[in-house]
Amino acid sequence: MTTTKELSENGEGLHRSIKSRHLTMIAVGGTIGTGVFFASGNAISSIGPGGAILAFGLMGVIVYLMMQGLGEMTTQLPISGSFEEYASRFIDPALGFTFGWNYWFCWAITVATEFEAGALIVRYWFPEVPGSIWALVFFILLVGLNLISARSFAESEYWFAGIKVVVIIVFLATGLLMILGLMGNSPGFSNWTLTAVPSAGGDPVSAPLFGGIGGFMAIFLMVAFTFSGTELVGVAAAETENPQTNVPKAIRSVFWRLLVFYVGTVVVLGFLIPFNDPLLLASGVDNVAASPFTIVFQNAGLIVAASFMNAVVLTSVLSCGNSGLFCASRMLYAMGNSGKAPKIFAKTNTRGVPVYAVLGTSIVAAVSFATSLVGDSIMYLACINLCAVSGVVVWFGIAWSQLRFRKAWVAQGHAVEELKFRSKFYPWGPWVAMIVFVFIIFGSGYWIFQDLDPSTGEFWFQLVTNYILTPILVVMYLVYKKKYKTKMVKLEEADFSIPAKEDNFAEAR
């Protein structure tokens, strides 16, 4: 049997150094990006408080259905590559190749957008310092954390995520006191029955719901983007201590915390801020003073609310960049192991860090950041749209893989009761999730044809960035399939084994 020490000395594979408390916080904090601090306000201004609750609530349920399936597979097979490897084993290796590179691209680009967002945030305190300097500082910090060890990533993410969680809890408590009239004047239900012209202009509309199907679909993709990162639990499982126990624990905690943090936030904002408040549309990382969180804290008497929220959003950005670099590098490492990427990316140092995968991802992120500086942030906006669609494609792949995983398990003579963790909602859960994900991928751009003029550059920009990824992924799939002559995996031949070095390390805890 290979011991922990031998693995470390030989630099053989990843190390299981992420603890239970790390994974639990990663599962929760990984879903709380800058979107919850800004997108929630944008959703309320676009489709009303009722529409925002419906969008965030529905997305929370769908993501939970997907996560149940991921938990079932990850607990049984806590291996590097996670859902990329599951797609290869249970559907088609060509699909695993496509999902893997799609996921790597999504997070590598996301890291670049976080560098830019971080630079914009720090400008609030240091307007004279060039943003590129701060981006370089954040780049060095995050790359350094990821090069030290998986434990250093997990520990830093634990505290980054902890700050976000504490702030949201304080926000919800403050908001509840304001709603009840125990802190300032309570608006009651006035904002839920308000009739007014929306912040973006147009005809008067009435709360709690407005905007129609077009408005809802436009917001739904943005809401999906705010939930991206939930699947990080699956990627981190390969480096988690006792994954058979800790992964289910983390998965079970996700739904209720998502419900409280996201839907609870929207409910509080719906009570306290009218949908026609112009600040809701003006909020963003470059204007934290307009964040709905800042508005609520200021109304509660917190004079330094803007500066306080700026610091919180900065930690959120660093957290997202930290997680993104970890996810992307581990996916690149796994693909190097399976031959879907150059073998050099599968090499690890004595601390179990895939150094070349981390550095390769960092270089791509740095180049993407440099590109985003050109063209008045056009590349930044394009990356956001592409990453949103990319994340939903990954979720679709996870749900499909779980359907095939369970069927293959039974086809090979196993009883469902033998699974170490069972999805509560199989088979309808993954089917519902897949249908909704397809609806988002192809229907999220409905508003483009409804609201934009085809003769304008904005129309074509939105059309391309919302839909260009899908045909690219189809081409990648077909090229790989033709080159390597892959076929749909037969259920009776699906591979449920764990690679020896990963299995041995799990036994050597």
Strand order of the largest sheet: 1-2
- Radius of gyration, in Å, reads 23 Å
State the CATH architecture: Up-down Bundle
Count of runs of 4 or more consecutive helical residues: 20
Number of domains: 1
Oligomer: single chain
**Main beta-sheet annotation:** 2 strands, antiparallel
Question: What is the CATH level 1 assignment?
Answer: Mainly Alpha
Coarse morphology: globular
Number-wise, the strands total: 2
Order of helices and strands: HHHHHHHEEHHHHHHHHHHHHH
Mean pLDDT: 82
Give the N-to-C terminal Cα separation.
12 Å
CATH topology: Amino acid/polyamine transporter I
SSE-based structural type: mainly alpha
Parts with pLDDT < 50 across at least 5 consecutive residues: 1-10, 504-509
Within CATH, the superfamily carries the name: Amino acid/polyamine transporter I
What is the beta-strand fraction?
Answer: under 5%
Based on the model shown, name its key terms.
disordered N terminus, mainly alpha, two-stranded antiparallel ribbon, Amino acid/polyamine transporter I, 509 residues, disordered C terminus, 1% strand
What is the gist of this entry?
The protein contains 20 helices and two strands. With 509 residues, the protein is an all-alpha fold. A two-stranded antiparallel sheet has the order 1-2.
Molecular structure report:
With 509 residues, this protein is mainly alpha-helical. The chain starts with a helix and ends with a helix. Helix 2 runs parallel beside helix 10. It has one domain (4-440): Amino acid/polyamine transporter I (Up-down Bundle). The chain has a two-stranded antiparallel sheet with strand order 1-2. It is 69% helix and 1% strand. The model is unreliable at 1-10 and 504-509 (pLDDT under 50).
